[in-house]
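Customer escalation, tier 2.

The customer says the design service returned an amino acid string that "doesn't look like it belongs to this structure." They asked us to rerun it and document both sides in this ticket. The original structure tokens are below, unchanged.
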């Protein structure tokens, strides 16, 4: 039985009043969504093509940084465009190199801890 299934068993007991049941159902749905998102991200991060893209983006990031540092005659618009590309790459790096597996583990631990508190 998965952690989420155990949480449903514990927190969606038919003896609960309707308000508590609905609140618990909302919390469990949030956990399910978060687990699904982290599982998809973990799968994507481990994919070979993601690593190929990361290598390419690293090179582009270095190129942009060097251009910003070594080119004095950039227009303000060109400089803003380069910073925007650099910021976009930083965002992609955070997605690609984050540790979704660790986040999944932490979320499962949190759910298990709440289940053990309430299941007795």
């Amino acid at each position: 039985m998965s952690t989420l299934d155990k949480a449903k068993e514990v927190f969606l007991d038919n003896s609960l009043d309707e308000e508590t049941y609905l609140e618990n159902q909302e919390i469990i749905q949030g956990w399910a969504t978060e687990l699904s998102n982290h599982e998809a991200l973990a799968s994507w991060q481990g994919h070979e093509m993601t690593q190929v893209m990361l290598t390419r983006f690293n090179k582009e990031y270095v190129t942009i940084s060097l251009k910003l540092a070594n080119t004095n005659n950039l227009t303000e618009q060109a400089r803003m465009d380069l910073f925007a590309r650099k910021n976009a790459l930083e965002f992609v790096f955070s997605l690609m190199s984050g540790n979704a597996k660790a986040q999944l583990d932490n979320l499962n631990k949190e759910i298990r801890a709440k289940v053990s508190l309430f299941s007795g």
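Tier 2 assessment: The sequence is consistent with the input. The longest helix spans residues 18-46. The CA atoms of residues 7 and 114 lie 8 Å apart. Sent an explanation to the customer and offered a walkthrough call.
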